[in-house]
Write a structure and sequence with these properties.
The protein folds into 3 domains: 204 residues, Thiamin diphosphate (ThDP)-binding fold, Pyr/PP domains (Rossmann fold), CATH 3.40.50; 160 residues, TPP-binding domain (Rossmann fold, 3-Layer(aba) Sandwich); 193 residues, Rossmann fold, CATH 3.40.50.970. It is built from 24 helices and 23 strands. It is α/β, with parallel strands linked by helices. Strands 5-4-6-7-9-8 form a 6-stranded parallel beta sheet, with helices on both faces. A 6-stranded parallel beta sheet has the order 14-13-12-15-16-17, with helices on both faces. Belongs to the TPP enzyme family. Its EC number is 3.7.1.22. This is 3D-(3,5/4)-trihydroxycyclohexane-1,2-dione acylhydrolase (Decyclizing). It comes from Leeia speluncae.
Length: 620
Amino acid sequence: MSQTIRLTMAQALVRYLAAQMVEEDGKQVPLFAGCFSIFGHGNVAGLGEALYAYKDQFPTYRAHNEQAMAHTAIAYAKSKFRRRMMAVTSSIGPGATNMVTAAALAHVNRLPVLLLPGDYFVHRMPDPVLQQVEDFTDGGISANDCFKPVSRYFDRIVHPAQLLSALPRAIATLTDPVNCGPVTLALPQDVQAEAFDYPEEFFAPRVVHFRTLVPELAELQAAVAALKSAKRPMIVSGGGVLYANATVQLKAFVEAFGVPVGETQAGKSALPWDHAMQAGAIGVTGASAANALAAEADVILAVGSRLQDFTTASNSLFGKAKVISLNVNPFDTLKWRSLPLHADAALGLEALQSALTGWKADAEWTSKAAGLNQEWRNIVSQITSRTEPPSADYLPYDGEVIGAVQRSADSTNTDIAVCAAGTLPAELHKLWRTSFPGGYHMEYGYSCMGYEIAGGLGAKMARPDKEVFVMVGDGSYLMMNSEIATSVMLGHKLIIVVQDNRGYGCINRLQQATGSAPFNNMLKDCLTGQHGLPEINFAAHAASLGAISEHVPNVKALEEALQRARAADRTYVIVIDTDDRRTTKEGGAWWEVGIPAVSSREQVNTAYARNLDAKQNQKK
């Protein structure tokens, strides 16, 4: 008869999580780096007591916003290429529903995070409990049911024994290459505190191994035949290259066969910026080199990409090409009638390279790609090297700010840029230069404003040896900034560069590009009360949260401030006013947006007609 140990459900949960291990750099380390928590009545007594008991083996981090702390945990997992992760716990009610947006972000980006929201009393003696959402037709529903459509696995633990099946399923989902994503275990507060005799062997340390999928022979042969027929092949490198640790295989493949590479937002940093076959960003926010090559390619090998509309220019960019989708997820391999190669990115590239011996891309194509790629690098250098303002009232734009940040680095160029939404993802996708995997951290699957600072904290916790730059607009800063205080409290220094263009400049430009009048995006175009526009002092605000901060008037002053920031011992916030009108004109591609078919504005009618013309290029 096996030995048992009597624990509360919450104690068993924490003990089990703490026992999960993974190999990293030849050493066994915990799979979970700890738990972010904001306590409330739904989790403080049960789970809070359990976390306290295991605080030395399973650290608990206090945060300031439930959505933000989940973003931090997600960013940690992204920076660890899904090999390590974190848990997040909140109380019931608003604490739980605050995390739903973060769950959706993790779901879209296929990133692991374990969400542990408190829940109502199962015994229902107090009914309704404080913050309980009542459903008039179903007594079993709570606010936590909102997590179901944005969780890869959901369970409500209504008896302590259910952990025996729920926890292994949770770990299997979090570490599965196909189903990886958020897991939600709703924890009723009475059940958290209930005791049960658990088998001791359930808590034995366990090393988690990540499965890899070998390509199936028939699919491999079809992909090889398609590539052997290609004269102008191109690779689209997605996030799956990074998550599969396939950057070495990618580099070997492109060098063996002379194939240019365009990188998605999630895949950027898979190949060094100065590699001869690095064509740069691809798609709507792409480089002129990558998009020109994509338009001419006869075969596109998409590796680990979801092939979302920003990558494919709303399915208009690869019109001449046959697409091979090498992806661990069969759902992705079937998009746009691709030729599927269902496999791990590293194993798939290795198998293709072995089978393609003797084949190469057309020499003229490889030479043309190298030339276009170098032209693009020259363009990037020109844009990012501008420092001197032509006039006293000149405001820099994001590209020039990015250049200043890049110039502030030493020759090793080991900084990490973190961003999420607005204009900056386009500018960074085109202009940020990185030489190592993970040097570019962009949340663009969900494009969630407010992710940036919290995400930067997660990236710093995962890569403490790197300088982490959070590039954020004033709009995103105002949406979520509380984790500046958390970064100071935990001693994880960030350098945050706030580009203040006084509104939602990105959407304002899109609004006008679709023919509409400027409205409700820039602060000056919004409805105001008797006191007019607020005078927002971002530097003073950041200082109030414990950061060192300053406002700088121009790029030259920014460069000087960046050196002070690098030398600082805690989070440093630099604010600079930027031009809301200018963007990098080079590169880019069409993106389909719904434009009204009927309007009294001639500008809208013109934009509608232009959109119809562009739709003719969409691959049917």
